[in-house]
Amino acid sequence: MTVALLGLLAGVIAGFFGVGGGVLFVPTLTFAVGLSVVEAEATSLLAIIPVAIVGALNQRRYGNVRFRDAAVLGLLAIPGALLGVVIVNHVPEHAARIGFVLVALYTAYRLALSGWRERQADSI
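User: That's the sequence. What structure does it adopt?
Assistant: C-alpha cells below.
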C-alpha cells in the first residue's frame, strides 16, 4: 500500500514540479519499505521511466519541451548513470546515504535562494 501511494504522489509531484520521483522515492523506499539506499536509488531510476515519459508527453502538448536540450541531457546522462552505478556499488552504504542527503539539501538551498531572489525582484 505504501508503494502504491508513493507512486501516485510521485506522479503528481513529478507532473507539477518536474522533479524526478527520486526526491520522494528514495527516502520513502528507504524508511517506509526498508530498502537500502542503493536499492532505493536503483528502484527509483527504473520506476521514474514511465512517469518521465507521461509527464514529458503531456508537457509537449503545451509546448514546454526543449527537444535539443532534452537530447543532450539524456545522451550525456547515460554514461553518467553508468559511472554513478559503478561508484555507488563500491562505496559504503552510509556514504551513499550522506551523498543523497547532501544533494537534496543543496538542491533545496538553491531552489529556496532563487525563490527568495524572485520575490525580492518582484517587490522592487
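The chain has one domain: 2-92.
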